[in-house]
């Protein structure tokens, strides 16, 4: 009997888990750790969403199996969201499927459309499921940059010309996790034209659709004419409505991809708990003031983070979107590498961040900072960071935070 399992052998150690384990141990020992590592919203959903959950949960017939593809009302609610937000018309029956968070949806789609040996183009650095969902399914990953410039399209052309077999899937994620980069509609228009010419499916992860700053709304790839011929897009209620633990997301777009994913899901799950799906309807169909409120909240936190950490001696570029800052290591400490720097920051500054190398080799030299603590705690983190930098011999401004 062998314990060399094929898929497990393809998974490297989860680097981020190492820092998470240290954080958990420190907290268990009673230390006050400012956790800027995991993108876990610190605020609750709107009251009317929680009330709908409780209302439906009290119904005797609400506790059986649900629908794997999502209840009809929720699929209609997501279609209506796309219509009012992006001007995109979707058929709720054939172009929308409910997922248990974006990660489950991406993994189910990878299982549905990937054969061992397929080549998938995925960004590096990237959120781990964008690569490992396909690696688990047996694919080979060819990395492309995250920066949406001319070099990006040059890398796509090289991949098509020099990869055997030719890549069949491209994963895109804007606003990017972890880099927070964004794109405009012209980028997607060019990308859709390229994908149609090269017969490549596009999988777009738009989980941070509503967390944009400086008055520059995000765009959907499905706004491009003909995009539904080759693209599927994932969204989530996790950050928009502070519902991360509810595990509620969606895939919309190309009918063939939706059908393949729905078929696989029908074998794997019975869908999310019906009261949660009903509450998700309330989120999408009800008052939307929380969307703007959360956007303003993260915008303010971004400004506080950039300002206070800058005064502490660590310059961080302001992210244009998402709930993360992609921060280069302080130059004087770049030699430590992102993992060791993260460990030291946790041990000596009591601040948890995510090492960039956990998002791919091109993430080395950076850490991801999640803006999931209030402004007071962010300023406290900056003061702690300043003390740590001083202890390491780094020149810092006179005062931070």
- In spatial order, strands of the major sheet run 2-8-7-6-5-3-4
Radius of gyration, whole Å: 21 Å
**CATH class wording of the largest domain:** Alpha Beta
CATH architecture of the largest domain: 3-Layer(aba) Sandwich
**CATH topology of the largest domain, what is it called?**
Aspartate Aminotransferase, domain 2
N-to-C order of helices and strands: HHEHHEHEHEHEHEEEHHHEHEEEH
Number of strands: 12
Number of domains: 2
Broad structural category: alpha/beta
Average of pLDDT: 94
Polypeptide structure, described:
InterPro entries: Aminotransferase_I/II_large, LL-DAP_aminotransferase, NHTrfase_class1_PyrdxlP-BS, PyrdxlP-dep_Trfase, PyrdxlP-dep_Trfase_major, PyrdxlP-dep_Trfase_small. Its EC number is 2.6.1.-. The chain is α/β, with parallel strands linked by helices and 401 residues long. The chain is built from 13 helices and 12 strands. α4 runs parallel beside α10. The model has no long low-confidence stretch (mean pLDDT 94). It has 2 domains: 6-44 and 289-391, Aspartate Aminotransferase, domain 1, CATH 3.90.1150.10; 47-285, Type I PLP-dependent aspartate aminotransferase-like (Major domain) (Aspartate Aminotransferase, domain 2, 3-Layer(aba) Sandwich), CATH 3.40.640.10.
């Amino acid at each position: 009997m062998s314990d060399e399992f094929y898929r497990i052998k393809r998974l490297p150690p989860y680097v981020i888990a190492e820092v998470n384990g240290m954080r958990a141990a420190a907290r268990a020992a009673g230390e006050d750790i400012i956790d800027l590592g995991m993108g876990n919203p610190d605020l609750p959903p709107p009251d009317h969403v929680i009330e709908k959950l409780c209302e439906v949960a009290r119904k005797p017939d609400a506790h059986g199996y649900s629908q794997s593809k999502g209840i009809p009302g929720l699929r209609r609610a997501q279609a209506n969201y796309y219509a009012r937000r992006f001007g995109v018309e979707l058929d709720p029956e054939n172009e929308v499927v409910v997922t248990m968070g974006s990660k489950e949806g991406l993994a189910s789609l990878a299982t549905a459309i990937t054969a061992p040996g397929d080549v998938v183009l995925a960004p590096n650095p990237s959120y781990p499921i964008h690569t490992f969902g396909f690696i688990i399914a047996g694919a080979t990953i060819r990395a492309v940059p995250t920066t949406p410039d001319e070099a990006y399209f040059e890398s796509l052309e090289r991949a098509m010309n020099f990869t055997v077999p030719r890549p069949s899937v491209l994963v895109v994620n804007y606003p990017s996790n972890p880099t927070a980069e964004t794109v405009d509609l012209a980028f997607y228009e060019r990308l859709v034209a390229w994908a149609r010419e090269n017969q490549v499916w596009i999988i777009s992860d738009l989980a941070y659709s509503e967390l944009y700053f400086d008055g520059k709304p995000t765009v959907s790839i499905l706004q491009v004419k003909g995009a539904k011929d080759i693209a599927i897009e994932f969204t989530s209620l996790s950050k928009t409505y502070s519902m991360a633990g509810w595990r509620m997301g969606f895939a919309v777009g190309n009918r063939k991809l939706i059908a393949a994913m729905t078929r696989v899901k029908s074998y794997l799950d019975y869908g999310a708990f019906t009261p949660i799906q009903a509450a998700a309807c309330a989120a999408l169909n009800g008052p939307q003031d929380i969307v703007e409120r959360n956007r303003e909240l993260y915008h303010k936190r971004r400004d506080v983070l950039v300002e206070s950490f800058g005064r502490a001696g660590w310059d961080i570029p302001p992210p244009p979107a998402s709930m993360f800052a992609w921060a280069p290591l302080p130059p004087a400490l770049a030699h430590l590498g992102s993992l060791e720097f993260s460990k030291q920051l946790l041990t000596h500054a009591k601040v948890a961040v995510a090492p960039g190398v956990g998002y791919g080799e091109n993430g080395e030299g950076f850490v991801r900072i999640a803006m999931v603590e209030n402004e007071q705690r962010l300023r406290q983190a900056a003061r702690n960071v300043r003390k740590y930098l001083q202890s390491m011999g780094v020149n810092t401004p006179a005062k931070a935070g």
